[in-house]
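ZP: hey, is the magnesium ion complex queued? I don't see it on the tracker
AM: it wasn't, my bad. submitting now with these inputs:
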Amino acid sequence: MQTVKTQRLDADAAGIAQAAALLRAGRLVAFGTETVYGLGADAAQPQAIEAVFAAKGRPRFNPLIAHVADADAAFRQGCETPIARLLADAFWPGPLTLVLPARSDSVVCAEATAGLATLAVRVPSGAAVLRLLRAVDRPIAAPSANPSGRVSPTEAAHVLDGLAGRIDAVLDCGPCPVGLESTVIELRGDHPVLLRPGGISVEAIERLLATHGAPRLRRSGPAGDAAPASPGMLASHYAPDLPIRLDARHVGPDEALLAFGNTLEGAGLTWNLSPGGDLDQAARHLFAGLRLIDTQAMRLGLTRIAVMPIPAHGLGLAIRDRLQRAAAPRPADGQMDA
Ligand code: TXA
Ligand code: MG
């Protein structure tokens, strides 16, 4: 693929205006959201979307999320239902993605939805990204701004590590405050379905649904199903270079440790996700920590990353999901989620 010079833009008025102009011209611009950095392109321009898949090396069957500045803009693309409005009012702007039946007058092109009849939409939070979306004034498709299958980026420098030379610009919005991707909920049948745990806890969604007497949230099949409900829910993803061992209660001499809470005796190279055992803090540090410990462990000649047990409540569910997929056997190139 052709190499371009990737500009780093400050998230000030001039930088945001330049990012918006690039996006409107069909170019690729990464930007920070509250979850992770996204690789943005105008969702209505097939050749811009094609360039996103090419830059990431992402399988074409894996659809993209359309990002918009508010719920009304989202419901101009996907069909509004009472539950969709309830969730939107409670959690947008914020780390929630809704998969809705696509409207017949949606401007999002078939390349972005992988030809599906549904459309994923989200209103991210963060002053800079919202200013950018308002300035562009059209849906922006944005997968996480990492090469397909690798660890998601939570800082502009991570984006440049993976995609410099393949994208036009990155808008530096600082480190992402949530640190892992949005929760994805599908709303097309009688019950809302959890497709991916993420930055809004399942408990918060279940509480809201119960308070309003809405149908209960269903969990989709495990990641790696032969026919995943979400085309992106393939097993291997978020992969660092070194293999990962989960639920470690001891640490071997050839292992680095990704700790949570009180660290393990005998641990050498250690990155603690949260010494105090706070799951929100652990989520914020997860991807940056995986990158750092991977690089340092390789340098020291260690052969594996051991990860301490993480509780499965709150953001712990999403942390465990990402770690399980980081630890999953890796398929041949081009077969991984993005
Ligand atoms: O927090 C996030 O969601 C980040 C930031 C940049 O917004 N984006 C992100 O995008 O994580 P991506 O492409 O890495 O993951 C999107 C997930 C994939 O698993 C994809 O398969 C799923 O959403 N998805 C998108 N459209 C879908 C649809 N119509 N039906 C089912 N799943 C869909
Ligand atoms: Mg991704």
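AM: back. The chain is about 30% helix and 15% strand.
ZP: great, adding it to the tracker
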